[in-house]
Amino acid sequence: xRQLPGGDPFGSHRVIAPRGxxxxxxxxxxxxxxxxxxxEILLEVDTLNIDSASFAQVSESAGGDAxxxxxxxxxxxxxxxxxxxxxxxxGGMFMGTxxxxxxxxxxxxxxxxxxxxxxxxxSLTPLSIEEIREIRTETDQVVVNGRAILFESxxxxxxxxxxxxxxxxxxxxxxxxxxxxxxxxxxxxxxVIFGATGKSGMLCACQAAKRAGRVIxxxxxxQKCQKLLELGLCHEVVRAGATDALGCYREVRxxxxxxxxxxxxxxxxxxxxxxxxxxxxxxxxxxYFFSMATSFTKAALGAEGCGRDINMIIGNGYTRGHAxxxxxxxxxxxxxxxxxxxxxx
Length: 345
Prior knowledge:
Layout: E1 2-4, E2 15-17, E3 28-29, E4 35-37, E5 41-50, H1 52-61, H2 66-80, E6 92-101, E7 115-118, E8 127-136, E9 141-150, E10 156-158, H3 165-173, H4 176-184, E11 190-194, H5 199-208, E12 214-219, H6 222-231, E13 236-239, H7 245-256, E14 261-266, H8 274-279, E15 281-289, H9 296-305, E16 311-314, H10 322-332, H11 334-343
Parallel strand pairs: 1-4, 11-12, 11-14, 12-13, 14-15, 15-16
Antiparallel strand pairs: 2-3, 5-6, 5-9, 6-7, 7-10, 8-9
């Protein structure tokens, strides 16, 4: 494998347009895998985990048709050199096998054949796809033959040997959510989780329950809401869509006797859920927007317009130690692990 010298640690050398920006906000990346820079890792990719907001948008635009979803994904990667949804701006993660390691990364103790899960977004990852072999619409995962680059600054996790690969990839894709939840929940807090029936929502509920006095989950699917209660992840589960801001506000006010939530976690994969989160939070409380469908403008101006003095946190996908913490949530909760294993086979 031919190596080029002088690569930027953050990957700016792969940016085609516009010049001078970093790979995530860039419009187009160089995804030529015939050579690498000496501070890059080249991987053979077998599975993409498209982030929930992105997959939902692509699927809706394609009318749920697998062929059209495949064409949309291939089109995005061909156009941008990365899997970055032009509507949501988000990407996802991948699972793959190390093919080559740049000489400047010799101290990483990586070798060809090692199995890794990326912990950085596909929206900044140079990617090429030769073939899409399967689209798993129920889990947002896409089985591919492809190649990807991890930059010197990119973080990753070895694939754990005690969890099914598809399950590990799914959990690590949202590892920032339960890890931030562990930081944000104080003893005895009332926690409201929007999107509690989803992948990240259930992990957050499981983590929050360790310290919270009360966990209230919101979801729309009746079967999934019932499963939340059966698993004991929430004290109450409300069947309501988070786009109904006033309806959600009234339910939280009723359930809390007007005190509202100390912490609100938004894991919803559709737009226009900012105000339900803001209105459900008490003055001085915290809203954690993990959802990639969140609009900063709607959240900031909406809180101002309602006179809400709250702390609002953007869902940084990285928290120190987030991979191990999230995998341990599944290791500790046998019921949740069994549920996830039934989904991610």
